[in-house]
Amino acid sequence: MANYAKTHIGNESRVELHEVLGLTGAEVSVNNLPAGAGVPFVHAHKENEEIYGVLEGAGSVTIDGEEIELAAGDWLRISPAAHRQFRAASDSGITYVCIQVKQGPLMPSQPTTLSCSNSRSVCKGPMKPRPLAPCTNLLTQNCLTSRPASRKRGGGTLCRFRE
Ligand code: ZN
């Protein structure tokens, strides 16, 4: 099987790249609404955020009751729970892409730096488990294991971080 998939989209009213390209981590749709037309329903999601990009034309979206004007070049992020409905302008069609992906994986789950009293090492977390390093001032919920360090190793607490 090839290591890539390519397709070409003309002016179909809606194409789901998930099917066409065999996507495995995101749903991407390309949508075309003619002037005066709108998506006939309001929808929301449980866990997925959506990123919308307007490629051509103009229109608007209602998000939780607020109407937002859209023009080519506009991009939006919409939280999962928001109720949304897109429509084209009365005098212009609109072409937009929608990227739907699970919210959260790029957010750091912990502060990125933990400071150590021992100057020999700086512990950073979250990170892959690594050899025990002398460190105090821990966020203990970020530790897989911890135990007191010997004086010889600089004292403090030894910890192994969760990924
Ligand atoms: Zn959606």
Please describe the structure with a list of short key phrases separated by commas or semicolons:
163 residues, seven-stranded antiparallel β-sheet, 1 helix, extended, binds zinc ion
Shape call: extended
- What is the first-to-last residue Cα distance? 32 Å
Q: Which band does the percent of strand residues land in?
A: 35-45%
* Class by alpha and beta content: mainly beta
Instruction: Please state the average pLDDT score.
Output: 79
Multimerization state:
single chain
Low-confidence stretches: 111-131, 134-142
- Enumerate how many helices there are, as a single number: 1
Please bin the fraction of helical residues: under 10%
Bound small molecules, deduplicated: zinc ion
Largest sheet composition: 7 strands, antiparallel
Alpha carbon gyration radius: 24 Å
Query: Element order, helices and strands?
Result: EHEEEEEEEEEEE
Number of strands: 12
